[in-house]
Specification:
By secondary structure, the protein is α/β, with parallel strands linked by helices. It has helices at residues 2-11, 25-36, 70-80, 93-96, 101-110, 143-153, 171-178, 213-225, 244-251, 296-305, 325-334, 369-381, 401-407; strands spanning 13-19, 40-45, 48-54, 64-65, 86-90, 113-117, 120-126, 135-136, 159-164, 183-188, 191-197, 207-208, 230-238, 255-264, 267-275, 283-284, 309-313, 339-342, 346-350, 362-363, 387-388. A four-stranded mixed sheet has the order 2-3-1-12, with helices on one face. Strands 4-5-7-6 form a four-stranded mixed sheet. A four-stranded mixed sheet has the order 8-9-11-10, with helices on one face. Strand 6 (113-117) and strand 7 form a beta hairpin. Helix 5 (101-110) packs parallel to helix 6.
Length: 413
């Protein structure tokens, strides 16, 4: 949501004000990029930013380094494709290993040429103010791919259509309407069809960014697996395409209360209250994967504390994240005494139940922020402390993680 707020504000003609912006390393990389592309970007106070767009992006004077920001780089490629500009996109070693052809290929079909080695970063993009609309079905369920095409479609000459077999998070569609984009989304069975009509000038908008359900998952998990714990989080975004984890936790018997708490930025808000207690493993259908794809590492940790077996299917996409999150999650549990079964697109976790997770192991984080935070949360409830090999990358998504956990009573050294 923070990435999108910066981009839409930079695309609009006028001044927008954003509050509660997540000032993570990833989001700051996006802020620097939209400034390099021609927007005026100013930080007024912690979490409060002013962005003035001029309706036209221009070629940056240097490569755009997005660090570890997969959302930032893929969405920016789409947003920049609609302008007559040339831009080089780069990132760190982790981001440079992730597939970009899934975005560059449909953009090429619209008329935005690119150069890269094997569909990886660095990539040079040649945008065009005369993009052609396309009718596209992404081969993978990815909100980043969908969003990149929609952002490019804002400048296409006609109607661009994206058809998803499995509906992914709709933040781009929701926020686009706030800025005056001409787009709509309609359910299509388990999927979604989104249409955007190009040519409309976006208007500035003031908004507050809602609390992130992916970041909230770590405090909720900590409460569930740490005996005697109870935690409440307020103002968390409630979006059907993002809240799969919380529905699964309730199915596992978690003492989790979800209370409506209003709305902001076009999204519903809830308060989440979790209390520790015994959970029961279950089989999670692959149809739920798009709604919780980022939460599987922390779900794997929670499943390790449950009674019985948890089966997670349809996880092939996890192999193309900041790390191979599927194998890394399995290795994290194995190193701490939890029995798992790993397949090409599935993970089976044999919960330790009342005996508790042994712990005592070292987690190889593989430069992945979600692996690092998941390993630390495991240590809070395990019989022996859990060590992770690196924590520097946590700031890419959740710079307040250690402060928040310390305030809740976690002992992380």
């Amino acid at each position: 949501m923070s990435h999108r707020a910066l981009m839409f504000s930079a695309l609009a003609a006028g001044t927008s004000r954003i509050s509660n912006l997540l000032e993570s390393a990833d989001v700051m990389a996006t802020a620097r990029a939209v400034a390099a592309l021609g927007a005026d970007v100013r930080r007024d106070a912690p979490g409060v930013w002013t962005v003035t767009g001029h309706g036209q992006w221009t070629s940056p004077s240097a490569p755009l380094d997005l660090g570890n920001a997969g959302t930032g780089v893929r969405l920016l490629m789409g947003a920049a494709a609609r302008f007559d500009l040339e831009a080089v996109f780069t990132g760190d070693a982790s981001l440079s290993s992730r597939p970009m052809a899934r975005v560059l290929d449909p953009l090429a079909a619209m008329g935005a040429r690119s150069e890269s080695q094997g569909g990886r970063l660095p990539a040079r993009l040649f945008g065009s103010s005369r993009l052609k609309p396309i009718d596209y079905t992404p081969p993978v369920a990815s909100a980043q791919v969908k969003s990149a095409i929609l952002l490019a479609g804002l400048g296409a000459q006609g109607e661009t259509i994206v058809r998803e077999a499995h509906a992914t998070r709709g933040h781009t569609e929701t926020m686009g309407l706030l800025y005056g984009a001409d787009m709509d989304a309609a359910p299509d069975g388990a999927g979604l069809t989104v249409r955007v009509r190009g040519g409309r000038v976006l208007a500035p908008h003031d908004l507050a960014v809602p609390g992130d359900p992916s970041s909230a998952a770590f405090a909720i998990a900590a409460a569930l697996v740490t005996e005697g714990s109870a935690v409440t989080l307020t103002g968390v975004m409630d979006n059907a395409a993002r809240s799969g984890l919380y529905a699964v936790l309730q199915d596992m018997g978690a003492d989790l209360i979800i209370t409506p708490a209003g709305a902001c930025a076009g999204e519903r808000l809830v308060d989440l209250s979790a209390r520790s207690g015994m959970l029961t493993g279950l089989e999670i259908d692959e149809s739920r994967a798009p709604s919780m794809i980022d939460e599987y590492p922390i779900l794997a940790v929670i499943a390790a504390f449950a009674e019985g077996v948890t089966v997670m299917k349809g996880l092939a996409e996890l192999r193309a994240k900041e790390s191979d999150r599927l194998s890394a999650s399995a290795a994290m549990l194995t190193a701490n005494g939890v029995r798992v079964e790993l397949g090409e697109d599935y993970l089976v976790v044999h919960g330790c139940g009342a005996g508790g997770v042994p712990g005592g192991g070292v987690v190889e984080t593989r430069h992945d922020h979600r692996l690092a935070m998941s390993g630390l949360v495991m240590g809070l409830g395990a019989r022996e402390a859990v060590t992770v090999d690196d924590v520097a990358m946590i700031a890419t998504s959740y710079p307040g993680f250690f402060n928040d956990m310390a305030q809740l009573g976690a002992d992380i050294t």
